[in-house]
Amino acid sequence: MPDSPISAPRGGVRIARGASPWLLPTVATAALSLARARKSGRWAAVAVPTTALAAGMLWFFRDPEREITDGRIISPADGVVQSIMPWKDGRTRVAIFMSPLNVHVNRAPLAGTVTSVEHIPGGFVPAFNKESENNERVVWHFDTELGDIEMVQIAGAVARRIVPYLPQGTKVEQGERIGLIRFGSRVDIYLPESIDVAVEVGQATTAGVTRIDRS
Questions:
Q1: pLDDT digits (tens, 9 = 90+) for 47-69
Q2: pTM score
Q3: Contact at 8 Å (CB) between 106 and 207?
């Protein structure tokens, strides 16, 4: 299982589970360079970029609390709707592109049970590229009141590690955290045939907040 989230001061933002392998070495290096910068001009030159990198990592791995929206299907990811495509089996795929500036913790679009979590190896082209269809990914299936719901976490050019938080068989609440994709990436959700899409291409989404379906 991924490491536990790093707690934040009361009223602050916690750090996502799965961040430690990247975050802790960066913060430790920044702290060391800052300590030595007091005695050495050479270390002062090192402290500036390492501190900036540590600050960037802290921002990237933030995991804010969310007031979960009421609705049948809510966005699993922060980002921008990249495409809305009808699928051969009648479902509609909504693809959400996440830039490095977005929160990268993904959330369950509906309440239900995780029926499968499948890791599929692949490439690492930019997630906004058409060839990203063959990228590294984790495919989720949820048994919900609407039937089977499929969600796919897709790695990008930099995001070479997807960290699922939950195993098969886990019961989840709508909006619950289910995993992390490190750095720029994409999340696809497949809506059942009977569901009308409430978002449009180019629209910004917030995980756990933006409603994907229309009443």
A1: 777 777 777 667 777 899 999 99
A2: 0.80
A3: yes
